[in-house]
Amino acid sequence: MAPVLLLPLLLQLLFGRSLAAYRPNIVVIVGDDLGWNDLSFHGSDEIPTPNIDALAYNGAILNQHYVQPVCTPSRAALLTGRYPIHLGMQGPPILAAEPRALPLGHTLLPEYLQQLGYVTHGIGKWHLGYHRKEYLPTRRGFDTFLGYYNGALSYYDHILETTYPDYGYMAGHDMRRNESTAWDLQGKYATDVFTDEANDIIRAHDQRLPLFMYVAHLGVHAGNAGKLLEAPQEEIDKFRHIADPNRRTYAAMVSKLDQSVGSIVATLQSRNMLESSIILFMSDNGAPTIGDPYPNWGSNAPHRGLKDTLWEGGVKGAALIWSPLLNRRPRVSFDMIHITDWLPTLYSAAGGRPYDLPPDLDGVDQWTSLANDLPSRRSEILLNIDERIKTAALRQNNWKLVVGSSQGGKFDEYFGSSGSASDPPFNFSSVLTSPAGRSLTSHAARSGWPVIGEYAMVALRARATVRCGPNYVSATCDPAASANKHCLYDVQNDPCERNNLADVYPTVARALKRTLVRYRAGLVPQPPALQQPSLADPKRFGGAWSPWADDLQSSNLQADSSTAPTDGPIGSGPSASVGPSASAGPSTTPSGNKPAPATAPKPSKPSTKPNKATTEANKPKSTADPLEEAPPATEDDKDDNEDMILY
Ligand SMILES: [Ca+2]
Predict the structure, then answer these.
(1) How far is the CA of 393 from the centre of ligand 1 (A)?
(2) In this structure, what are the phi and psi dihedrals at residue 486, rounded to the nearest 5 degrees?
(3) Considering the domain boundaries, does residue 150 fall inside one?
(4) Of 50, 350, 515, 620, which has the most beta carbons under 10 Å away?
């Protein structure tokens, strides 16, 4: 940390000015497994989120923001600016006893911001590997860290439990202050732990330096079996209008997350730091409404699918951005953004020079587009390719191709609460009187921005609410069962993925498939899913999950369990988890060392031309038949089966 902090101080001495004067504070808040329909600015009255809504209604609601289908790949994409297929991290989340991590050799977002003089703080979930100390957040760009290394834990006792069939039950504490175990925080609700840490950091921040704070909440991920959902009883009692007791507790967890956002915004305002801040809020993937072992009763309605699927319910992540640096706000943006874009976008917003970043990043600098409401610089997003479970999806302009199906298709339907007529009607004045609302109103009054009133909020909310549109096709497409194993949707006009147009527009389907095949050529295979419960067992480390492989050579990392735990995360089931005998190709090592460069050519960078399709998304929906909007056939339409093999 010391050499990094010396640079800005040296610059201050040389130029006699504060770096913070031209580098905005950046606060990224991530909700875990938070459903699309569980934020009230998307239209549901069931769970009011007035603080998050206040940011949304005063900033830009990002309604075409795509993430990865599960935790680890999303976080890897966020911090590297690279598609997980280029990291070998396109598969399931990292398990507690698995010697796997985000490969070294990639500069992470906090490291880039350190280079620009930022003080960097990581709070909450890491989930990018910890079996060796070199993979810890404190070794990868964060000056401080308060949080946990694994994917989930119980909210009060901060314990993660897991059971391996060949080994048995394991449990350990997983809360760290920097690299020390934070036993003193046991018993305190995790969302409050992270909120208090964020507020303490803001209060103590030296405003001569720019601040980067990554708040990766546990909320609203499920905890351990037997106490999946936990919230303070007084919070649960606010949601008596919700009949399902699990959904009621989930609502309280969302509410605690919302209050955390409000508290952080208010603390920034109390120190007059909002004026120079960017606040980005997102969910890392869709909610796992059902399923084992971590269902949370969240809702992605009206979208199809849920966490761990490539349907919109899994990968269209709720998101918003607020900043005085956005010149056109409030607004609802329908421009395509992918989670990989945030690294170059925030680096650019921080005053970094785009050409200082690696030219082969998958993320696109969207800062100018965001700040000035210009069309997205993207017309294409690779949503994922998982070569093990044989799934893939691509978004290109208004089209989306879905290939294969995860979890045997059991999450391919429509799940989750749509809200209910019996819910109390949404109270817009609660947005204005929330801590975030009051802070933003105060900030607006001081800086000359108009204060957003209830009438404007009603209009923004209506615009941000997804409506499924007409149903043209009677049969639901099942990509695992259909003859050509893919489904094609015009998601701009059919956001609920009900009308499979693959047979109507085979030309379009082939073109998207061809693009997927080109991406597939550059895929870094997933490393073997080793499991080492006997080495990782917290009993060896005083009861805390801790790095366990520092004394081992990579060649000695051998699986001592042939199967994944019985309570592994979604995506770690038999179809996604293999023993060491399953070769993952020669280019990666089980210790997570940097993969060898892929020799296959990468697909072209996303187009930087203005995206007509997404520009037009800002206009009212056309009632015209979307079937008439397909591009004309080309020479490429001649099928070329030998070139269309994905797996
Ligand atoms: Ca997640």
Answers:
(1) 19
(2) -150, 160
(3) yes
(4) 50
Q: How far apart are CA 416 and CA 303, in angstroms?
A: 9
- Does residue 484 or residue 272 have the better pLDDT? 272
Give the pairing type, strands 399-403 and 486-490.
antiparallel
556 secondary structure, DSSP code: G
Query: Using CA atoms, how far apart are residues 188 and 571, in angstroms rounded to an integer?
Result: 30
Query: What is the Å distance from ligand 1's center to 604 Cα?
Result: 29
The model's pTM: 0.88
Distance, CA 310 to ligand 1 centroid (Å)?
A: 14
Model confidence band, residue 18 (pLDDT cutoffs 50, 70, 90):
low
- How many angstroms does the Cα of residue 442 sit away from the middle of ligand 1? 34
Burial readout 514-541 (b: 16 or more C-beta within 10 A, e: otherwise): ebbbbbbebbbbbbbbbbbbbbbbbeee
Give residue 313 CA to ligand 1 midpoint distance, Å.
13
Contacts of 605 (CB under 8 A, 6+ apart): 364
Domain ranges, residue 145:
29-303+310-379+435-449
> 88: which 2 tokens?
């070998």
CA of 317 to the centre of ligand 1 (A): 10
Rounded Cα distance, 529 and 533, in Å: 13
Asked whether the bond before 424 is cis by omega within 30 degrees of 0, the reply is no
Q: Is 107 exposed, middle or buried (0-12, 13-18, 19+ CB in 10 A)?
A: middle
- Of 213, 230, 256, 235, residue with least CA distance to 124: 213
Residue 644: inside a domain? no
Q: Is 77 left (phi over 0), alpha (psi -120 to 50) or beta?
A: alpha
Write the CATH number for 264: 3.40.720.10
- What is the DSSP annotation of 394-410? EEETTEEEEES-GGGGT
Exposed, middle or buried, 422 (CB in 10 Å: 0-12/13-18/19+)?
Answer: exposed
DSSP string covering 274-292:
GGGEEEEEEESS----S-S
Model pLDDT for residues 34-76, shown as the tens digit of each residue: 999 999 999 999 999 999 999 999 999 999 999 999 999 999 9
* 281 bridge partner residues: 29, 320
Residue 63 lies in a domain: yes
The reply to whether 621 falls in a domain is no
Contact criterion met (CB below 8 Å) for 282 and 257: no
Ligand 1 centroid – CA 29 distance (Å): 13
The per-residue pLDDT for range 406-446, each reduced to its tens digit, is: 888 999 999 999 987 788 999 999 999 999 999 999 999 88
Residue for token pair 């005998």: 581
Count of domains observed in the chain:
1
Give the Å distances, CA to CA, from 43 to 301, 420, 538, 580.
10, 11, 44, 47
Q: How many CB atoms lie within 10 A of CB 39?
A: 27
From residue 494, give the alpha-carbon distance in Å to each of 69, 304, 375, 626. Answer: 20, 11, 21, 9
Task: Tell me which residues are annotated as active site.
Answer: 71, 127
Ligand 1 geometric centre to CA of 71 (Å)? 4
